[in-house]
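pasting for the record
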Amino acid sequence: MRALRRPPVPAAAVNRAVRAEPAQARALLDAADDLRRAHEAVLGGEADRDALRAAVAAERQAVGALAATAVAEAGGAVSADVERRIRDTLEAVALDSQVRERFATGTLESDARAAGLAADLAGAAPAPPRDRRARGGDEARRKAEQERERRRLEAALRRAEAEVERRRADVAAAEQARESANAALRDARKRLRVAEAELRRARRAGP
């Protein structure tokens, strides 16, 4: 039997994200449904473009949230190309019924590309509030802060370990001194007993 083909990294990351964060996946499905309805209404002359812009913004927000989860599920350090393909796949949920069906069950076999609706939506929604460089800057600052905290904790651990070793050495030295003192005391008592015995013999042998 031929082995099942493993999905590419972007599709696999999206599948894991759907299973890890089902609420985010549901939010994207709902936003995709709203976007399709708003787009159809605009084309039919039944709604204004403000409603469409709101639907696009909601869909982009849902895509952004689940894309971040998918990137984390892929290991957190992915290439720009993989991240783009993850976002393209999530955006295709609103456009392709087959992609939507496999996305809903977390069984995508390949990544997808949003097409068709994108041209109609050009200019319909405001640009995302933060670009990739801003997100990258926040991520870099977060990692730098985590690294500083890790180094601080490691330094504190080394100081604590050194203090424990010093205390152990002090205890060992004290125990050794006590043993030496006990040995000296035992020797002194032995010598005292010998001297007392000699004194008694001398008294008995006296005139």
